[in-house]
Design goal:
Largest sheet: 6 strands, mixed
Number of helices: 4
Radius of gyration: 14 Å
Structural class: alpha+beta
Distance between the termini: 42 Å
Length: about 140
């Protein structure tokens, strides 16, 4: 895979997430993909399980946006710096009812591709920053 192909996949995934289209978001995930994050949350294995997790983020905010800031890629890997923004005005997030607070945070993703799909995704962000926005700290 070349960098342009990986970039297109990331852009389409972020567009699907921002538009609330979980199927478009998940279209480029390998069936047995692995998701990990820098928090102490256990890994998520499998496309459907990860889509369920991502859908929680989609459903908690009506105006969510996932925007790539910078992308660096080579061979089968890409690192993406991103910005998430949204209003916590939908369903519960981490057990907290809608607060109507604005949420903003930056994160980095390390993506590994195989056969045109993302087979590993590792997210690096500060979960305490998010918890502060929704009043969980």
């Amino acid at each position: 895979m070349n960098v342009n192909e990986m970039t297109k996949i990331v852009d389409e995934m972020f567009e699907g997430f921002s538009n609330g289209d979980i199927d478009k978001f998940g279209a480029y995930l390998a069936p047995d993909m692995l998701y990990e994050e820098s928090s102490e949350m256990p890994p998520i294995v499998g496309r459907e399980a990860f889509k369920d997790y991502a859908n929680l983020w989609i459903k908690c905010s009506s105006d969510r946006q996932l925007r790539p800031i910078q992308k660096l890629g080579s061979a089968k890997q890409m690192v993406v710096q991103l910005r998430y923004s949204g209003t916590h005005d939908g369903e519960e997030m981490y057990g907290i009812s809608a607060t109507h607070n604005q949420m903003y945070f930056d994160a980095a993703l390390w993506l590994t591709f195989s056969d045109g799909k993302i087979c590993k995704l590792k997210a690096f962000f500060n979960p305490l920053q998010l918890m502060g926005y929704i009043g969980a700290t």
